[in-house]
Specification:
binds nicotinamide-adenine-dinucleotide; Rossmann fold; binds uridine-5'-diphosphate; 7-stranded parallel sheet; globular
Length: 321
């Protein structure tokens, strides 16, 4: 099959491209490189089944493909808040353009939605029938409301035009190929710990998240795409084990043996207090459950950051010589 992955040069997108190529599919990766990088996919470029297109999904695109993974959108708060209007456009116009392509070609399309559609939730753990508690005019709204509107569009195209849709609500996912300056908690803490710099905890660190390793998440997304047309979602994908941000900092310090001190900084506006997915739908419908324990996933991610920081040091030394 020929499969389009928008945002394919990003953290999750690059892992999806890799997995699809390993499954002997052809992949077209579309990205505008806002947060993605050619480095994430440079090892795929020699593969004749892989094609890279620089394109912004807010503009129409005409391709001939069999399936679409719509992953394009910055996911880290610092990046999606950098240009909030563009973030909403990416979710909304990007969804319209990909749904239009799916309608023309009569093909399935998967949307990378998010646990952020639940906002700062009053229901815990969050299941798919919960409507969420989202501020429509706060700093996170460009992302949260953009993703909510994209879900609306997906279901309206499904009801109105019979498009085969797959809506995944992805919870916090981490792993190799996150950017060192990504700004999300796992990459921030790992980079800070490896540099023995202060670990920045926002607020008192009692807020919680549930962290899923990237390989597990990609497995869930591919199972969802391969599921029968009757399975539309929305479907939670994430690891149903919860840690406070303070606990995460201690685990990362322990694995790295870091001398970093903890530095407390103000909690960002509208930062959700707690988050854990109810994944019973994914388990019964897709037979999916994440298998990588947090510590194991963190060890792999830390090894990745250690290696890329060493390469960066060597490049800097060579440039200075
Ligand atoms: P990322 O920032 O690493 O990847 C996003 C990719 O989309 C980047 O390559 C970026 O350059 C590209 N992009 C952004 N705007 C674009 C545009 N207008 N046109 C074309 N390309 C564009 O983030 P990620 O963590 O890989 O997230 C991928 C998707 O998964 C996003 O849609 C995100 O909302 C969703 N998601 C991720 C998580 C997570 O924990 N990683 C959680 C929930 C949802
Ligand atoms: N966080 C933190 N220090 C950091 C980065 C993030 O304490 O250096 C906190 C953040 O306030 C939030 C949690 O970690 O409570 C997860 O943040 P992230 O940006 O990774 O994801 P999201 O808030 O979108 O779940």
């Amino acid at each position: 099959m020929r499969i389009l992955v928008t945002g394919g040069a990003g953290f999750l997108g690059s892992h999806i491209c890799e997995r699809l190529l390993a499954n002997a599919d052809e992949v077209i990766c579309v990205d505008n490189f806002f947060t993605g990088s050619r480095r994430n996919i440079h090892h795929l470029l020699p593969n004749l089944d892989f094609e890279l297109i620089r394109h912004d999904v807010t503009f129409p695109l005409f391709l001939e493909v069999d399936r679409i993974f719509n992953m394009a959108c910055p996911a880290s708060p610092i990046h999606y808040q950098h240009d909030p209007v563009q973030t909403t456009k990416t979710s909304v116009l990007g969804a319209i353009n990909m749904l239009g392509m799916a309608k023309r070609l009569k093909i399935p399309v998967l949307q990378a939605s998010t646990s952020e559609v639940y906002g700062d939730p009053e229901v815990h753990p969050q299941n798919e029938s919960y409507w969420g508690r989202v501020n429509p005019i706060g700093p996170r709204s460009c992302y949260d409301e953009g993703k909510r509107c994209a879900e609306t569009l997906f279901f309206d195209y499904h009801h109105q035009h019979g498009i085969a849709i797959k809506v995944a609500r992805i919870f916090n996912t981490y792993g190799p190929r996150m950017r060192p300056d990504d700004g999300r908690v796992v990459s921030n803490f790992i980079v800070q710990a490896l540099r023995n710099q202060p670990i920045t905890i926002y607020g008192d660190g009692s807020q919680s998240r549930s962290f899923c390793y990237v390989d597990d998440l990609v497995d869930g997304l591919i199972r969802l795409m391969d599921s029968p047309a009757t399975v539309t979602g929305p479907i939670n994908l994430g690891r149903d084990e919860e840690f406070t941000v303070g606990e995460l900092a201690e685990i990362i310090k322990d694995i790295t043996g870091s001398r970093s001190e903890i530095r407390t900084l103000p909690l960002p506006t509208d930062d959700p207090r707690q988050r854990r997915p109810d994944i019973s739908t994914a388990s019964t419908t897709l037979g999916w459950k994440p298998v990588t324990p947090l510590r194991k996933g963190l060890e792999r991610t830390i090894a990745y950051f250690e290696a890329s920081m060493k390469t960066e040091e060597r490049v800097n030394l060579a440039a200075r010589a």
